[in-house]
Write the C-alpha cells for this entry.
Amino acid sequence: MIVVRRALFAALITATAQLGAAQAPPAHAAPPVKYGVNIHFEQPIVNYVGTYSPSTYNKVLDLMKAGGSKMVRLPIPWVWIEPNAKGQYDQTFLAKIDGLLAAVNSRGMKALATTGGPPCWATSYPNAPCGTAYFSTPGGAYPPRNTADAGDYAAFVVSQWGKYLSGVEVLNEPNSGNFFQVPAGDDKALDYTNIVKAEYAAVKRVSPTMPVVAGALAFSDTAFLQSMYNDGIAASSDAISIHPYNVRFDDPFVKWGDPSVPWPDAPMNSFVLGVPQIHNVMVANGDGATPLWLTEFGFSDCNPNYLCMDQTTQAQYMQKSLDLIKSWSYVTVALMHQAYDFSADRETWNGWGLLRSDLSRRPVYCTFALAAGVSSCQSDALSSELNAQQALTRAWQLGRAYYLAHGRSFNGFDANALRAADSSFTGYVLQAYNVVPGPGANPKNVGIYVNSGTNAGTDLEVCNVSTTMAYCILEHTGNVNHVPVIAHGKASGGTYAAAGATNNGVSTTW
C-alpha cells in the first residue's frame, strides 16, 4: 500500500444533505406489480442456523407491511423438514414455520415458498459427510436420487401451509455451483428441470391453482433457460423467476453500476439488457404469456469494496431498477433482496436490507415503499459515525465514476469535480490537514488526495472525521491493467492517523 503525501490533500468539502429527509411520492400511480422482499429469518448466509424469533419477525413484518410489501420470499428447507427419514417431520421446525407464516398472513401478505435441496437420506451426493445446513454443500446442493421424493416434500409444504402461500419456487439459483451441483456426467439443466416437473406435478395434485415457479436463476442466464425449455419446462411452470443483479465479475474496475446503463459485453449481468433478453427467450419458445418474476435484486450499502456503495447510491439505483420494471409489462412480481441486515457488521453480503440490523429504515426502504403505493415515507437518521462513513463512501464512489469517465485516471478529481458530480457537496479551503475528531467536528467533511508524479492519477484517497473517529478510503489502481486494491481504515487520533492505518493495512474495517 502506498504512503500518501499528506500535504497534497486538495480540499475539505461538505458532504451530502440530511440522509434522513422525507422523500416525496412519485407523480405516477403505482403499477400492477406485486412488490415484496426476501426474508431470511434462518440467516442462511450468516450462520446456517434457524432463528425464527417472533420478537424479530413481528417487527420486520410490521415494517414490510407499512412499506407496501404484498409478498415475502421465504426459503422452507427440505433438510429441516425431513432431516432424518422420509415422512419423519421435525415438529419443532414445523411449529416455527406455522407461527411465522401465520404472522405474514395476519398482515395481509402472502409468502413465496422457495424449496431447498435434499437431506442426507435423499441426496445423490455419493460421499460423506453429507452436511445438513440449508445451503449445505455438497449434499444439499445435489439433486435427490429420486425426484419423486422432492415432489412429495413440495406437496407437503403446500398441504401444510398452502393457505399462506402465493406460490412455490423450485430451488435457488440452480445455474450456480454455489447452490446446485450434479453428479459427474449429468446435464445440470436437465436435472433441475426434472426436479421442477416432479414438484409441479405433486403440488398440482394437492392444490391445482397453486402457482409453481421455475428458474430462480442467478442473473439473466438465457443459455440455461433455453436448456430448460429444451427439456420441457414450459409445461411444468406457471412463471419463470430470475435474480437480475446488476453485478459483473469479469472487469476489475467495473463490478457494479447504474442498472439503467447497459453492459453490451456482459448482457447476462446487465439489469437493463438481461431482463428483456430472458423474456425474449420465453417468447421464442412460445411461452411469452407466462409471467416473469424477479425474486431477488438489489444493491449493498456496505463497507467500501467492489460490491459496495453508499445508501444514497443504493436508493438511486433501486429507483432506476423500479422505473425499468414499470416499463416491462411481462414482469408481475418484484422482490427486493432483502428485508433487513442480519448484523451490524457492514460486510459485503450484509448491506442489502431495506432495514439496517437495528431495523431502522434506509432511504431505499422509502424508494421501494413509494413504488409499492405508499403515499409518503421517511427514512431514519444516522449516527455521527455512519454519517461520516456514508459521506466518505459517496465521495469515493463519485471518484471511481470520475476515474472511469476520464481515461481511467483520477487526475483532476478535486472539490470542484466532486461538486459537479453531486451538488450537495459544497467545497471550501482546507485549513489544516490533520483534522481531529471532537464534539465540534463536522461529520460531513471529506478531504481528497490524488497522487502525482510517477503513475499520476492512479491513486485516490479520501478521509473524513466524525465526533469520535477519523476514516479513510484508499483506491490504488497502479495502471489500467492492474487489479485495483481498495482499503479502508479508521483511527481516533485524526485523519493523519486514519490515512496511515489505511495505507499500512493496520485497520481494514470500520
Residues 384-405 form the longest helix (22 residues).
